[in-house]
Amino acid sequence: MPCHHLARSIPARPIATALLACSLLAITAGSMAVAQDTSVIDKIAVYKGADRGKILLDGAKKEGTLTFYTTLTINQAVRPLVAGFEKKYPFMKVRYSRDNPPEMLQKLSAEARANNYVSDVFESTGLEVPARKANINRPFWSPEAEAYPADRKSPDGYYAPTRYSYLGVCYNTDLVKPADVPHSFNDLLDPKWKGKMAWSSTVIGSILFITAVRNFMGEEHALAYLTKLASQNVAPIASTNRAVVDRVIAGEYALCLDAFLHHPIISAKKGAPVAPDPMNPVLTLVSSVMLPKAPPHPYSAMLFIDYLLSPDGQRALRDADYFPAHPNVAAKDELSKIVPEKIGMKSNFIGPEKFVAYLAKSRALYQQLFVK
Q1: Could you state, in order of their start, the residue ranges of all structural domains in the chain?
Q2: How far is it, in rounded angstroms, from Cα 366 to Cα 39?
Q3: 293 with 355: CB under 8 angstroms?
Q4: Which residues are within 8 A (CB) of 340 and not within 5 positions of it... i.e. 6 or more apart?
Q5: Nearest Cα to 120, choosing from 141, 148, 97?
Q6: In the chain, what is the straight-line distance between the N-terminal and C-terminal CA atoms, in Å?
Q7: Of 43, 37, 91, the residue nearest 66 (C-alpha)
Q8: Where are the beta strands (DSSP E) in the chain?
Q9: Where is 286: in which H helix or E strand?
């Protein structure tokens, strides 16, 4: 069955699952040699010659297809992105499969163990470090990546940024008066919010919130702050960040502490009583594109990576209500009110390596302070 027939949209699971899976899969996949022919991708993955464009086009015309693994929403983003690529390169046909990060990691690792990659390109949130540890991807170079800030991409070429996510507080506009809306992290310590706040009890929720606080406050001040926040009885919701926003919309809680800030904007457009409330500095995550060790269609893979990172590909993501990573492609005006650079706030950027490095201690702090 073609991969696009298997595409599906399912609720995101905690990225912790992907990280745990990585620790197991790296043992079996990490030391394996890839039996597929890698002679072509070995040459072109990091090739910078003046004839690179012609080489990719000539090779892609012969291949005519590629398979794209992604965590992007199919109808919202993947189909328009693929349509734009196929319009620009009418000789190409893209197959795609949508999975959450843990399932994607498992699938790619299984392909590596079988020495038979199906994926030509994969794009995800939170897999940059696990994929490398599992030895399932390789460095690459694209001229389009040169436009991106150095601190947002892999210094050794293992991933390049495709889109951003911004996280922060959201509130129920029926329950919170305009004059009472909290505007800083310290405002969340006001006794009036005790028992009225919630967050997701997942790695991408409460644990990430703790990581963000540690990153900009420093360890000593973060511990003092989190100790005070723990006395506010923040309700843990054993589900996704989106589910917590829905509980706020339903009036069960006044505030959500870890919303993907575009979710309340989209819900408010549909009439829901909810609004985003960015906190300075705004927690910022990145999603990235990666190249498998042995893509079966290497020329097409590199051509697609170029497109995804180009202004054309980034505008396709923007038009699908995502936040482009390209510095010269702005988000939609209606979404710009949560982009830190657009609202005079700083970005609290948690890169892939820092996300993993902080994980164990942030989880320990959560257990120590917030688990009763």
Answers
A1: 3-163+287-334, 165-284+336-370
A2: 47
A3: no
A4: 166, 278, 280, 281, 282, 284, 346, 347
A5: 97
A6: 48
A7: 91
A8: 65-70, 93-98, 121-124, 137-138, 160-172, 197-200, 235-237, 255-260, 274-277, 282-292, 323-324, 347-349
A9: strand 282-292
Instruction: Per-residue pLDDT tens, the chain, 372 aa: give them.
Output: 334 333 333 333 444 444 444 433 443 334 333 457 899 999 999 999 999 999 999 999 999 999 999 999 999 999 999 999 999 999 999 999 999 898 999 999 999 999 999 999 999 999 999 999 999 999 999 999 999 999 999 999 999 999 999 999 999 999 999 999 999 999 999 999 999 999 999 999 999 999 999 999 999 999 999 999 999 999 999 998 999 999 999 999 999 999 999 999 999 999 999 999 999 999 999 999 999 999 999 999 999 999 999 999 999 999 999 999 999 999 999 999 999 999 999 999 999 999 999 999 999 999 999 998
In whole angstroms, give the CA distance from residue 78 to residue 143: 23
Q: Is 43 helix (H, G, I), strand (E, B) or coil?
A: helix
Three-class SS state of 130 = helix
Residue 42 tokens, joined: 């070995």
**CATH number for the domain formed by residue range(s) 165-284+336-370:** 3.40.190.10
Return d(Cα 234, Cα 266) in angstroms, integer: 25
State the pairing for strand pair 282-292/347-349.
Answer: parallel
CA dist 341 and 347 (Å) reads: 7
Q: In one letter, which amino acid is 61? A: K
Euclidean distance between CA atoms 287 and 352, whole angstroms: 9
d(CA 257, CA 348): 15
What's the full length of the chain, in residues?
Answer: 372
Distance, CA of 120 to CA of 65 (rounded, Å):
10
b/e map 322-333, b = 16+ CB within 10 Å: bbbbbeebbbee
Provide the pLDDT for residue 29: 39
* DSSP code for 14: P
pLDDT (0 to 100) of residue 188 = 98
DSSP-derived secondary structure for 171-212:
EETTTS-GGG---STGGGGSGGGTT-EEEE-SIIIIIHHHHH
CATH class of the domain defined by 3-163+287-334 = alpha beta
Give pLDDT, residue 16.
44
